[in-house]
């Protein structure tokens, strides 16, 4: 079967968040399971070409390349991945979709796999051209739908993408939902949540019409890439088979990191947050957790930045107010540092308001770091309170949950070890999830 993934991100060459990890991890596993896979991406100027092998411009604006044996196609020329202005973002991705249409004219394939609204226009465009085209749509974040005033864009399939609530607006995700053969949310719980008024963000009624083709498949993580036994970004490698050795490995990495960052209190718990600083991620609780940790004798590392200047300013102020040897805020995207932080931390906080799947809790568990989460979406599917982490239903209870984690860490080391062991025992690889996608492809053809 030939599958073409079309997306706005692919890790590590064009990554903003989990979407990029998923496109790469799923495609890699599908290839390992014997499928023919290709990935089509916008050709961003930020792509690090030293990572790519065998590049060839086969037509103007059409570059064939490879990343670790995965065939890529880079189309057009685009300065950045996302921006703050919805209309210009829609125009850029619409232009990319037109380029994809031109390319696919002469291509054969079995499945077109689309990821989120940026490539959603392709569903109605492809179906209009050939109703037999088989399209699978993955929903990574239902909150982003590709909306802007209709009169600001042109040359789009307006009949398919009219907003269901406002005739003057377009809604690209709506057109994608109504023109796909299968819709896959990135976790089973999220598939249920987007059918509700709150989770559906205005499209729940449209999605209900398509409920018969909606499923949820939990994302995996690339367990070769995220592996503390041979992660090239770690200073000390460690396996998780023996918990005591693992803890020594974690402490050694932490000692190195603390030395580099001038931090102290090496024996106290290290709590981290590795996240985009956007409202979805529970900003108030991130702030409260930082303060709680410092006031309770712990260390806190925040790795993440915000696309919104006001939010960034709020966290800059917070970092300045609590500046000291027990806090490190790193307001940039830093892949290398992220690996060391996963490996060095005792706890990761993920107080998201909603979380389609979430990868950071799975990565953290693989590195022996205990997740403290709000029970929503994929966090609910992966973290069980008191078994492999700590979880609360209400956002208001998050500080109590963190306090429970501190108590367990300090006063019940045996329970703490058991939490770590349970977390790393679960298979978060792509293997099973890729098989579930294969079953969906089969029923869609
Ligand atoms: P989302 O896709 O909503 O951003 P996920 O949990 O699904 O959230 O995925 C986040 C991914 O981005 C993870 O791989 C995480 O390690 C990474 N990440 C987030 N912020 C940073 C950062 N500042 N530096 C490095 N990696 C980051």
Which SSEs are present, and which pair or pack?
Blueprint: E1 2-6, H1 18-32, E2 36-44, E3 53-59, E4 62-67, E5 70-78, H2 86-104, E6 111-115, H3 122-129, E7 135-139, E8 147-149, H4 158-161, E9 169-171, H5 172-178, E10 182-185, H6 188-193, H7 197-200, H8 204-209, E11 214-216, H9 243-260, E12 270-274, H10 283-295, E13 299-303, H11 309-321, E14 327-330, H12 335-344, E15 347-350, H13 360-366, E16 370-374, H14 377-382, E17 390-392, H15 398-411, H16 413-425, H17 431-444
Parallel strand pairs: 1-2, 1-6, 2-5, 6-7, 7-10, 10-11, 12-13, 12-15, 13-14, 15-16, 16-17
Antiparallel strand pairs: 3-4, 4-5, 8-9
Helix pairs in contact: 9-12, 10-15
Bound molecules: adenosine-5'-diphosphate (ADP).
Adenosine-5'-diphosphate is lined by residues 17-19, 21, 274-276, 303-305, 333-335, 338, 357-360, 363.
Straight-line N-to-C gap:
10 Å
- Unreliable runs: none
The coarse overall form would be globular
State Rg: 22 Å
Question: What is the residue-mean pLDDT, rounded to a whole number?
Answer: 96
| Structural class label | alpha/beta
What CATH architecture label of the largest domain applies?
Answer: 3-Layer(aba) Sandwich
- Largest sheet: number of strands, sense, barrel closure: 9 strands, mixed
CATH homologous superfamily name of the largest domain?
A: Glycogen Phosphorylase B
Number of domains: 2
Name of the CATH class of the largest domain:
Alpha Beta
Q: Which ligands does the model contain, each kind named once?
A: adenosine-5'-diphosphate
- Helical fraction: 25-40%
> What is the name of the CATH topology of the largest domain?
Rossmann fold
Task: Give the amount of beta strand, in percent.
Answer: 15-25%
Report strand order across the widest sheet: 3-4-5-2-1-6-7-10-11
- Count the beta strands: 17
């Amino acid at each position: 079967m030939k599958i073409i993934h079309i997306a706005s991100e692919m890790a590590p060459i064009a990554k903003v968040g989990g979407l990029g990890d998923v496109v790469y991890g799923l495609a890699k596993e599908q290839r390992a399971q014997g499928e023919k896979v290709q990935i089509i991406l916008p050709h961003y100027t930020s792509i690090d070409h030293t990572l790519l092998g065998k590049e060839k411009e086969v037509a103007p604006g059409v570059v064939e390349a490879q990343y670790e044996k995965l065939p890529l196609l880079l189309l057009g020329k685009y300065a950045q991945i996302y921006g703050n202005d919805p209309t210009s973002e829609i125009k850029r991705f619409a232009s990319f979709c037109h380029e994809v249409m031109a390319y696919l004219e002469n291509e054969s394939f079995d499945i077109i796999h689309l990821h989120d609204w940026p490539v959603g226009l392709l569903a109605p465009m492809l179906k209009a051209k050939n109703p037999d085209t088989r399209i699978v749509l993955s929903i990574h974040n239902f909150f982003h739908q590709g909306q802007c005033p209709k009169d600001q864009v042109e040359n789009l399939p307006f009949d398919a993408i009219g907003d269901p609530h406002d005739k003057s607006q377009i809604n690209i995700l709506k057109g994608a939902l109504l023109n796909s053969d299968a819709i896959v949310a990135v976790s089973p719980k999220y598939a249920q949540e987007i059918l509700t008024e709150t989770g559906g963000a205005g499209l729940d009624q449209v999605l209900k019409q398509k409920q018969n083709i909606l499923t949820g498949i939990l994302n995996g993580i690339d367990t070769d890439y995220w592996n503390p036994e041979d992660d090239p970004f770690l200073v000390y490698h460690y396996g998780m088979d023996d918990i005591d050795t693992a803890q020594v490995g974690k402490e050694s990495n932490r000692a190195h990191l603390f030395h580099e960052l001038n931090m102290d209190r090496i024996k106290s718990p290290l709590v981290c947050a590795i996240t985009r600083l956007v409202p979805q991620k529970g900003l108030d609780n991130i702030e409260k957790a930082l303060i709680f940790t410092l006031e309770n004798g712990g260390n806190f590392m925040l790795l993440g930045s915000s696309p919104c200047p006001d939010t960034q300013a709020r966290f800059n102020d917070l970092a300045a107010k609590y500046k000291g040897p027990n806090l490190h805020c790193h307001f940039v995207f830093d892949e290398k540092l992220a690996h060391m932080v996963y490996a060095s931390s005792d706890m990761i906080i993920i107080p998201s308001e909603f979380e389609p799947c979430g990868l950071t809790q799975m990565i953290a568990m693989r590195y022996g770091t205990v997740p403290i989460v709000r029970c929503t979406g994929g966090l609910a599917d992966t973290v069980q309170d008191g078994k492999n982490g700590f979880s609360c239903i209400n956002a208001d209870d998050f500080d109590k949950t963190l306090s429970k984690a501190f108590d367990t860490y300090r006063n019940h080391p045996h329970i703490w070890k058991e939490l770590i062991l349970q977390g790393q025992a679960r298979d978060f690889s792509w293997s099973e999830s890729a098989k579930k996608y294969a079953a969906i492809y089969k029923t869609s053809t």
